[in-house]
Amino acid sequence: YANSLQVxxxxxxxxxxxxxxxxxxxxxxxxxxxxxxxxLSLSLTHSSNVCLxxxxxxxxxxxxxxxxxxxxxLNNKLMxxxxxxxxxxxxxxxxxxxxxxxxxxxxxxxxxxxRYPNTTDRFNPYKYITYTFGYSYYRPQYYxxxxxxxxxxxxxxxxxxxxxxxxxxx
Length: 170
Prior knowledge:
Layout: H1 2-15, H2 31-45, H3 62-74, H4 81-86, H5 89-96, H6 102-115, H7 148-155
Helix pairs in contact: 1-2, 2-3, 2-5
């Protein structure tokens, strides 16, 4: 719990003005109440490392993740703002504690919406991944500079400042 308090302190010092925001969302939620639940949730999820599922070295920062979800909420990039606003601290923990690094969250949201614009298919992981054994995410073809333009054109990496380097799988 000591780590949780440190994370909460970091969030507070970075965004204490959010806890004074008396404005109300279109759904009738006070921003300050929503932001407090987000901060409490992240203080609990990020009391230990939250890292990308592959290799575990690309870890999330609670302040950055808070800013990502705040921005997505303000720009209606969540599946349902009203649902998000109704989440308890415990429910928000399940949403915000995902094994993806911070720089990919917005990219994945936009990529899935573009790939499957009007269907629930975008929420089905089996539409994106063919499960096989022995797949190597570290293949040089994925990270060589001569292939960057190809991958950037296909996945719009530069639009989201996605890190592209060997040993840093995405």
